[in-house]
């Protein structure tokens, strides 16, 4: 006990405490270094430019091999477009004069735009693009110029086709192709995505205003999260020259960066505020926050980084880009939270309370009824949980397993256009009509053949045999088109697959080509490469690679998360329970996804009717993201429980103290995450909707059932075994500095002098 304001603080040794102390003492230097870092990172990134994932980087196997052959040969494959001319309600056949006149008008109109080349009429001798029933035909052509920018130039062609359609009302005349589809999707969903991304920050700010009750306190976490995101954007440009990035990786980085950036600042700021409310002076409050919440932020941040690094094991360039971008933004946010944040708080001092909102300021809220500040609601819940821990565990685990049960029948696939977009876009109906009239015509398989001499007699014969057997085997109904690039010794064979938009049937046709037709024809010629690519092949290769990467990613993430928990808490029990609880959380999220999007339970509430499957990449993506983000709350709560235990509280009292005092910040952080992820759940694309709903559901379950009920119940049952570490593990490095924090706050005695309790 100390009297007359004398302070006796325990020495602090951990990185977080040292960084926070230096930052508080060198406030302007810390802020200046951070601003300089953000500006330099953005500047260097802008100068370097960003290299995005190319098609030949996307996948391994045949799809990547085919893309490399095309790139090595310097062949620019144009963006192909198709106009469907089809009779309505049993109208004229393709041989009728009015039908021929409509086709001629389409050809004339698209050629008149000056934007197309290689226009092919369905009546030409070398094409057979008239449907089997004779009531539909395809006019095909290529867009001029760079195929990557064709969507920017396709609008005049679309208008020309629409004009012809207005002149022939008895026929359905519709355009579809790579350029027109990209333009349609960009127009429909580009603003949708931007609105979602831009609304995330105001939503987070609004929730923080409620949580802190003061404008300045709410702005600090948002400002730090935004600057961390800006710096990471610059770093992504630099790193992309080693690991290509993508727009998807950018969106995921923004989501993760906003979530963890706000969370980390929230943890730090709430603890600093709490210590000041107890009676500590601002400097001491900052040191306590640095030694406790700062340490929890580092443990959590490193764990999240490790989880994100798991994506690197997929071998998929898109996943690797998302993993690396997320890892970088978490690392930047973590460093910013334990370095520049203490400096900002030291500079602001009491001004952090500026802009108070009436009736919302936390200092005006009552305690929890146990003599300490915290959540009255969670205090009541804990009274029940700690009184009946066995019942609480049984009920919570039973509920989570029931929610997770639908996941046992999870069906994953790459969503078709009608599954992804439903009937929200007319071009989706066009896609279905083309596939119905010309099975596989919208997305043919593409065989890329490279030979030493593409004009050699043996190679020509093999190409002819392949073309014939592709139809005779039942894999295609034709027409099978061969384009020969003699100077490059490359030929490209387009094979419409039987099955069309039915992925399962189309994959069977693809298997016939790969396993039977190709070995019996092109495979008989020495020195010939013939990888088969295309939409169906890419989807199949992607699925195979995802399935093959599940085990290594799972093992890596779980093993390293376990090791980090073991080193950070020096407790085998905490490490094991951390993994088990996180897996329960992820399993429950899977169950929610399957129930809504596969079985359709409540699908109308989120606009997900008729999807019937989970997109292939989502389960692995969710596992990695959720395993990392869930550790935020777990580390924060368990750190507070252990801190209280080291300060002499009983096991049950420490659990109560840790959960109740962190309930407010965990709830605020969870509400922000759920709100931000729910915004993405409102998008029209089902893949984004599934991602948003899955993340929001998992965070909600994690912050309530897991951290508020199951964790305290399990720790209550385990008692002192919570901190069990076998003797043979005592040799592990000790990373538990500063867990006990600093001496309790002073309170005035009856005589007016300070005492410590």
Question: Nutshell version of this structure?
Answer:
The protein has 757 residues and is an alpha+beta fold. 62% of the residues lie in helices and 8% in strands.
Which key features would you list for this structure?
single chain, 757 residues, alpha+beta, 4-stranded antiparallel β-sheet, disordered N terminus, disordered C terminus
Walk me through what this model shows:
With 757 residues, the chain is of the alpha+beta class. The protein has helices spanning 15-25, 27-48, 55-58, 62-73, 97-112, 155-167, 178-212, 215-239, 247-278, 282-309, 317-348, 376-387, 389-404, 417-421, 426-437, 457-472, 503-520, 535-569, 572-598, 603-606, 618-646, 651-680, 686-718, and strands at residues 80-87, 116-120, 136-143, 171-177, 412-413, 445-450, 481-485, 490-495, 532-533, 614-615, 746-748, 754-756. The strands form 4 sheets. The chain has a 4-stranded antiparallel beta sheet, with helices on both faces. A hairpin with a 5-residue loop joins strand 11 and strand 12 (754-756). The longest helix has 35 residues, at 178-212. The chain starts with 14 loop residues before the first helix and ends with a strand.
